[in-house]
C-alpha cells in the first residue's frame, strides 16, 4: 500500500513538472468559446446544448492530440510536418493563420477590453483605447517575460479560475433554475439563426483546430530549458488541459442555462454591454457581494486567453515564414519574436478600431472560418502522425484513427448542411 502511494506521488510530481503546453492550451481555450459562447448556449437554448459541446470536444480531440504526439516523437513543430508533406500544406496553414491574425486576436481583445471597462466602471473611455492599452501591456509581458513567465503566471491563474468557477457553479445549482416568463417558447435550434450559432460554438469549442500547432510550438519552447518527457507523459499533461477545458465549458453552460434560460434575455453583441450582462448573471444567484470577485475572474480569464493567443500566433507566423521563405533568414534572430508580437498588436488594433465595440461580427467571422477548415487541418495532422517520420509503435491506435475520420466526416457534413441552408 505504501509503495503504491509513493508511486502515485511520483507520477503526480512528474505531471506537475511537465505542466506547461497543456496548461497554456487550457488557458487559451477558456476564453470566447467558454465565457461567451458556452454561456450564451445555455442562456438561449438550454440543456440541449450539452450535446454539441461534448460532440465538438470528442470529435476534435485527435486533431489536437496529434500535434503533441508528432512533436514529442520527432522533436519538430507541427508546421515542419506540414512542410514535409508538401509546401501546399504549409501555405494552406499559412492562409488559415493569416485569417486568424485579423480575426481571433481582435475578437479576444475586444471582449477583454469590454470586461475591463465594466470592471472599473470607466465607460467614458472608448473600447479601442482600452484595447490599445491591453495590446501594449501584453506585448511588453510577452517580449520581456517570454515563455517562462507565461507558463508560471498561468498556472496560478488557471488554478484560481477553476476553483472560483467550480464554487460559482455549485452555488448556482444550489439556488435552482431562474423562473421562466409565462408562455415561454423554446427557440428553434435548426433554423438559420440556430445553425449559425452552432457553427460559432463548435468552431471554437474547445478552441480552433489550427491551435494544434500552437501546443506543438510551446512544447518545443519548454524543452529548451527542460528535458523532453516521454510520449505518454506529454500526452498525459495535454489531456489534463484538454479535459479541464471541456469541464469548464459545461460549467459556463450550466450557469447560463440556470440563470437566463426561459427569461428571453438576449445577450448583447456590444462588448461593454455584454461584459456587464455576463457579470450580472454570475452574481444574480450569489449576491451583490460577489460582483467584484466574478468581474475580476472573468477579466483574468480573457486576459490570459489574449496573452496565450497573442504569443502563439506570433510564434506560428514566424515559424511558417522561416520554413516557407528560408531566404528571409529569420532563424537565429533573437529580435524577430518581439517584432512579431508588436506587428500583431498594431494590425489587430486597427481591426478593433474599425469594428469598434461590436464584437459579434468578429467572433462570427473567426468561428466560421475555424469551423470550415477544421476537418482539413484534422486530416493534415493525421497525415503527419501516420507518416514515415513516426515509428509504427508511436502512431495512433486504430480506435483513435477511427475517431479522427468520424470527426472529419461529422464536421464536413455539418459544413455542407450550413452552406445548403444559406444558399437554398
Could you characterize the architecture of this molecule?
It is a single chain. The chain is built from 15 helices and no strands. The protein has 424 residues and is mainly α. Helix 5 runs antiparallel to helix 6. The longest helix has 49 residues, at 127-175. It is globular and about 65 Å long.
| Helicity level | over 70%
The Rg value, from CA coordinates, equals 21 Å
Termini separation:
66 Å
Count the DSSP helices.
Answer: 15
Keywords for this entry:
15 helices, NRAMP_fam, Mn2+ and Fe2+ transporters of the NRAMP family, 424 residues, transmembrane helix, mainly alpha
Secondary structure elements and pairings:
Blueprint: H1 2-18, H2 21-29, H3 32-45, H4 50-74, H5 78-85, H6 87-120, H7 127-175, H8 192-203, H9 212-222, H10 231-260, H11 271-284, H12 291-324, H13 336-355, H14 360-385, H15 398-423
Summarize the structure.
The protein has 424 residues and is mainly α. It is built from 15 helices and no strands.
